[in-house]
Amino acid sequence: MELRLADNASLEIVYKIQETCNIDCSYCYMYNVGNTLFKSVPPSSPLDVVESVANFICDAFEDWNPSRVSLIIHGGEPMLMPAHQFAARMELIGAVLDRRLTPDQRDRVEFSIQTNGTLVTEAWIALLARWKILVGITVDGREAVHDRRRVDKKGRGSYQATIRGLELLRTAAREGRISKPGGLCVIDPTASGGETYDHLVNDLGFDNINFLFPFMNWSNYAEEDVEGASRFLLDALDRWMKGRAAGQTVHVRVFTDALRAMHGFGRGVYQRTPGQRIELGHQVTIVESDGTIMPEESLRPTFEHRFADLHVASDRARDIVSDPRFGDLVRADLTRSTECAGCVLIDVCESGHALGRVGMRFVMDGDFSRKSVYCGAYAGLFAGLAHFMSQSGVGVEDILTGERRHVFAA
User: Fold this and answer.
1) Picking from 96-105, 260-269, 400-409, which range would have the lowest pLDDT averaged per residue?
2) Is residue 183 a contact partner of residue 135, using CB atoms and an 8 Å limit?
3) Which parts of the sequence belong to the Radical SAM core domain (predicted)?
4) Contacts of 395 (CB under 8 A, 6+ apart)
5) b/e 338-350 (16+ beta carbons within 10 angstroms → b)
6) What phi, psi does 332 have (nearest 5°)?
């Protein structure tokens, strides 16, 4: 199965500009599930790597014609980096892009940042405004739910500090200095999805959010957590559908991804051509603080030993597609599990490809041969959305219009 990038494939670079974090989330797949990579890379990305990342973006425009390039500033916690150091890095990135790209190409590069919100200051907001950086902030629900797992290094809850940061961001958005922040919520299997949805939307004012399943695969599978996460998502879906029926416009990425799959849009990731060639319409590249190119974090506890040697200073985005290690991951994600044979949703769900991470199909000694651990949740989501769309008269385009897709990951 040959892989290539489509002529206008979009590129998403998740740049770990700061590998350390000021809180200690119990579910974090960077620090608390066996991933040790953060111990061997610099805490902050040095300037030479920053310049290489900028040139990596420009090289992509030389190699093909990306419809969009998204540079997601990630961590750890990016705002642990002093604001003046971050400013120097953004100035360097901007200078390289301005020198090497045409105005049209430059307009297709967007910046976003994912933060826990506890370190937001006016100095940081000035930088977000200066570089038109979209913001995603992680809030896992009401204070008791959020603080159950998102604690600082002394075990104290982080909710109040997160809300203080959110209020600064919301004020800046109301004043027109930055775009309205998006919200990210990692599902707590013991919490109420409806109550969490209400808190995020009605109490905190988010109109663009995403729910992430806690990462599990078939080797660390906990049935009660899978069932709890499924209940959470379907409860949140119920509140979203009721809000939609009442005229409320809230974009929830996992719901819109499901709608895209149901209506044949998929995730815009690939299409098959004659001869079993796969053309990728979107490529996600993870760049560590030292410039190393790696697979996404949820794969690392079982998979990181298989990757090495690719670097933004020496390799281009097109090289990643041709690298057999990364190619194997793409092929695994696009290969349907034999467990799914006969399922009426197979052409929509594609063994979890439409909604989940390929790591959620991992099983020891079988790699990614199984269906997603969240198969039941996906089935319930598709069924719920199908019922809503048939009864409400709301068009899928109406729901997708205006969605901002800058919220990435916890």
Assistant:
1) 400-409
2) no
3) 7-244
4) none
5) eebeebebeebbb
6) -65, -40
CB 380 within 8 A of CB 393: no
d(CA 27, CA 53): 29
345-398 pLDDT per residue, tens:
998 998 988 888 888 888 887 788 899 999 999 999 999 999 888 887 777 777
Return d(Cα 352, Cα 240) in angstroms, integer. 22
The overall average pLDDT reported for the chain is: 89
Return the residue matching tokens 């197979």.
346
Between 331 and 113, the more confident residue is: 113
Are 212 and 167 in contact by the 8 Å Cβ rule? The answer is no
* Bridge partner list, 272: 278
Task: Give the single-character DSSP code of 372.
Answer: P
Q: How far apart are alpha carbons 404 and 16 in whole angstroms?
A: 22
The span from the CA of 131 to the CA of 28, in Å, is 29
Specify whether the backbone of 345 is left (phi greater than 0), alpha (psi in -120 to 50) or beta: alpha
Reduced to 3 states (helix: H, G, I; strand: E, B; else coil), residue 301 is: helix
The Cα 170–Cα 235 span in angstroms is: 27
Helix (H, G, I), strand (E, B) or coil at 311: strand
- Could you tell me the two tokens for 92? 């360097």
- Cα first-last separation, the chain: 32
Residue 146 φ/ψ region, left for φ over 0, alpha for ψ in the -120 to 50 degree band, beta for the rest: alpha
Q: What six digits make up the tokens of 47?
A: 């300037």
**Helix, strand or coil, per DSSP, at residue 219:** coil
Cα angle 116, 117, 122 (rounded to 5 degrees) comes to: 150
> What's the residue count for the chain?
410
Select 3-302+396-400's CATH number: 3.30.365.10, 3.20.20.70, 3.40.50.720, 3.50.50.60: 3.20.20.70
Q: Name residue, tokens 């069924």.
A: 383
pLDDT at 36: 66
Q: Which of 139, 258, 159, 151 is nearest to 206 (CA)?
A: 139
Question: In 3-state terms, what secondary structure has residue 370?
Answer: coil
19: helix, strand or coil: coil
Task: Write out the two tokens for 77.
Answer: 């916690």
In the chain, what are the domain boundaries?
3-302+396-400
